Amino acid sequence: MQKILVARPIFPDVIERLKQYFDVDWHQGDVLSVDELTRRLADKDGALTAGDPVGAAVLAAAPRLRVVSNMAVGYNNFDMAAFNAANVLGTNTPDVLNESTADFGWALMMAAARRIAESEHWLRAGQWQKWIYDGFLGTDIYGSTLGVIGMGRIGQALARRAKGFNMQVIYHNRSRVAPEIEAELNAEYASKQDLLKRADHVVLVLPYTKENHHTIGAAEFAQMKPSATLTNIARGGIVDDAALVEALRTKQIAAAGLDVYEGEPNLNPDLLTVPNVVLTPHIASATEATRRAMANLAADNLIAALGEGPRAGRPPNPINPDVIGKARS
């Protein structure tokens, strides 16, 4: 029987599914160190991860490893050059979290714009004594301009929701989306600079790559409206968190909502000192239905990639499909 490692705690019923096909080593504690991950992968044919870093050294120490299934859309935790060189397949879990993540992006954007977290902390501290006409004045969502950077599936889901708020939608993407999608979303393509100048609410939904590192930093904050908000539901590292702290502290922008951070689960401690930011711990996809769908899709990818189950040899979501069928090198 082939051996796999499940490197994170996940739903027990998904583990039972995997046990129908594999000898399962299930790690249920804290995040594995790279050394421990390397040790436990040494005799494995496959692995299910959730953001665990897998690079050349890890792959070299696991000569039987043929597939690593990531329970996430993003896979910047994988060194794909090393995966390709070793003929190891990587898979991910797109689509099943689009709507939940878009919902959460809206929740975070609205909480930042309307100063919900800031006012709640003030109330809990016992400071609410009377109604104040200018207390916690925020910025409107309805009738404003939404700027989406990254118009993939989640970006499009965000833009679709803007119709109900009578918003103008502008977007920036690596490449322009099809005209019929623009028409459906009533979305206008804009340069990054133009979007930053015009948008009342900027939402980031682009993948993390070396090229996208610090897509938003001091120069970009200087181009935004003082009344604008920034929401990041993409990946940490896309925003220069230190520059964001300064922009919030000096009111260069009005507010921000963050679900992801540079170096998470660690975060820049200065973010905790500015009141005009809403902070959540990477939970944009965290509904039970969505997380179950992600776990089951990660299992489907792993089962199929290792030649088991009804889709044997045809995993639903290969990242580097060119290695399928090639011998491990």
UniProtKB/TrEMBL annotation:
Any one Pfam family match given in the protein's UniProt record, by short name: 2-Hacid_dh_C
Top EC class for this record: oxidoreductase
UniProt xrefs under InterPro entries: D-isomer_2-hydroxyacid_DH, D-isomer_2_OHA_DH_cat_dom, D-isomer_DH_CS1, D-isomer_DH_NAD-bd, NAD(P)-bd_dom_sf
Key word Chaperone present: no
Gene3D superfamilies the UniProt entry points to: NAD(P)-binding Rossmann-like Domain
Keyword vocabulary terms for this entry: Oxidoreductase
Domain D-isomer specific 2-hydroxyacid dehydrogenase catalytic: 4-313
Region (Disordered): 307-329
The D-isomer specific 2-hydroxyacid dehydrogenase NAD-binding domain, residue ranges: 107-284
Entry EC number(s): 1.1.1.79
Source organism superkingdom: Bacteria
Alphabetized GO MF terms: glyoxylate reductase (NADPH) activity
Family (UniProt): Belongs to the D-isomer specific 2-hydroxyacid dehydrogenase family.
Protein name: Glyoxylate/hydroxypyruvate reductase B
Gene: ghrB_3
